[in-house]
Amino acid sequence: MQIGFIGLGNMGLPMAQNLLKAGHSLLVFNRTKARADSLLAQGAVWASSPRAVAAQTEIVLSVLADDAALQAVALGEQGVLAGLAKNGVHVDLSTVSPDTTKNLAQLYQERGVRFLAAPVFGRPEAAAAAKLWICPAGPAEAIERCRPLFDAMGQGVIVVGTEPHLANVLKLVGNFFVISAIETLGEAFTLAEKAGLKVETVLEVIKALLPVPLFLGYGTRMAHNEFIPPGFGLRLGLKDVSLMRKLADQVNAPLPLADVAHGHLRAALAKGRGDLDWGALITVVRELAGLEPGAR
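-> structure tokens emitted (296 positions)
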């Protein structure tokens, strides 16, 4: 199947590589062309714009940093919407606002084409290993057309429903679990160290009581100050928590844990740590407790 792929960052590049491995033909676009070099060497074809990608493919996938990037790729004279043929499908796998997806889904429907939201759960290493969890929402027939692509990139598909924006709600809820765990781990490790307990002992308790990837993975990295390279950058994490808080305001749902984590992430960004993994939230918690941000 001839597939379009837009956005070759830390997540998008390995996802595109897995599609090539599965035998799909790829037409690719990225803001920085050099990011596509490895794919082009494997047989992918470069396109000059998102519109050019859409004009030559039935299904376009995008993995982008934020709402503004998605809107820039989707809309305008050189956007995906301008190039998609009737019954074409644009699948966005990014973490963006439900409001943005609502707007795009309506615009695409008016043009006789489909927009799916299909955000993913997993870090870059999971993307490389085709172990992502993919959560699509939109018209059922469009989801089924895309299922072979989801199968090539992930270990499972969780169909959210027919309303695309609800996939973005699910992604924000899932990322709320993650940032809540990071905040909890940051406070727990800091309390332990202030009281004279070694963080390795805390890790042993985590292994015994919370033997799941979320706590084991982030716990180990945070205990050992392993924030480079970032699996998920702190700057992007702050963006996601801001989206959670916006959604909570819209539906009048209290989200006090997200409020606390947002303050710590913003402080870390102000201290120049935006390019670290978002587990570096612990550095601010440590400083508030009178400890050095990274010393153990």
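Residues 165-194 form the longest helix (30 residues).
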